[in-house]
Amino acid sequence: MTDLSECSPLDTVVLDLDGTLVDSVYAHVWTWHEAFRDVGLDVPTWRIHRAIGMGKDRLVAAVSSEAVEASVGDDVRQRQAERYEPLSHHLSATPGASDLLAALKAHGLKVALASSGSRDSVVESIVMLGADEWIDGWICGEDSVASKPDPDPVLRAVQAVHGRCAFVVGDATWDMESACESGRPSVGLLTGGVGEAELRAAGAVLVYPDPTALLTSLDHALESLGGVID
């Protein structure tokens, strides 16, 4: 568990994108499933779902094997990207996502995004959310040396906005683990289909159903996490 005394007062929030602010988890699950089928592999969707949120470079081996990664990993990733791209234009925000971003900014926090997705997908999501004015910086999968659950994405996102004391908001166990490894407290959301018990076991200090619920309790959440810089 992260020592909250080392993370206060807070000046930065790092948010995951897919599943946290954008309702995209099940689009990812389906497109990965179909990409595996394209190369003759039937990987159960429940297994894929549990891996969503980790870096794409890790996912193929995580849901199949190192042998599959070595033989067709790049092919599967390319096929998934091709299947996902047309769906990405029809995604919507998770409940209250844009309002939460505005409120975090209004509280004086630096707002950063840490996504495992591509640069183009991050830009498209920011436009869809109408959130450009509230986001101070972001990093994508192409910017990280190592992907989630490694701490590198969180650390780079904090650096991107010149932050110091940050907390993380995400929907996957991989987000919580990345936050813990970086020494930052985390808040879990249920919008990715992962249960509260698993998010807490992975390190979440607080868990809320969705961004709207976090927004409703934002003052309490920030106080619980260590307060914000006045």
UniProtKB/TrEMBL annotation:
Gene3D superfamilies: HAD superfamily/HAD-like, Putative phosphatase, domain 2. One of its GO terms (molecular function) is phosphoglycolate phosphatase activity. Keywords: Hydrolase. InterPro entries: HAD-like_hydrolase_sf, HAD-like_sf, HAD-SF_hydro_IA, HAD_sf, PGP-like_dom2. GO terms for biological process: DNA repair. GO terms for cellular component: cytosol. PANTHER family: BLL8046 PROTEIN, PHOSPHOGLYCOLATE PHOSPHATASE. This is Putative HAD-superfamily hydrolase, subfamily IA.
